[in-house]
Amino acid sequence: MSPDCPRCGRALTALSVTYRRNRWGGAPPSPRPEQWWRCTGCGWLGYRRGADRPLRPMRRLEGEEGTCPFCGEEDSNVAGEPWETETGELRDWLVCLTCGTSNPRCLTPPGGG
Ligand SMILES: [Zn+2]
Ligand SMILES: [Zn+2]
Fold first, then answer.
1. Is the pLDDT assigned to residue 19 strictly greater than 80?
2. Whole-prediction pTM value?
3. Highest taxon of the source (predicted)?
C-alpha cells in the first residue's frame, strides 16, 4: 500500500534510491534502508524509515547544491529539514538520489556568526 501524499492526498509512487558507490568486491547495488516516495501530482518527495513511521519531506536542491559531489550527477541532491545540534550548529541531511550517498551538512560554520 502506498501512503498518501501529505500535501495533495494522491497515492505516492515508490522511488528507488540505491547505493551505487564503493561497492567493493563487485557487490551489486543495494537499496538504502529508508522507503522513498514521490508524488507525481504535486512533486512532493520524501522518505520514511518504516511502514509505521511518519513521512519526512525532502526538498530538491538546485544549481551547484544540487550536483552530487560524489557521483557528479546534476539535480540529484535532496535535503531534509535542518536541525540544531547541542553545540548550536545548524545541520541538514543531504542525499543523492542517483548514487544513494548521504551525508550530514553543516549550515553554520563552527565559530562563525
Ligand atoms: Zn502530492
Ligand atoms: Zn551521487
1. yes
2. 0.86
3. Bacteria
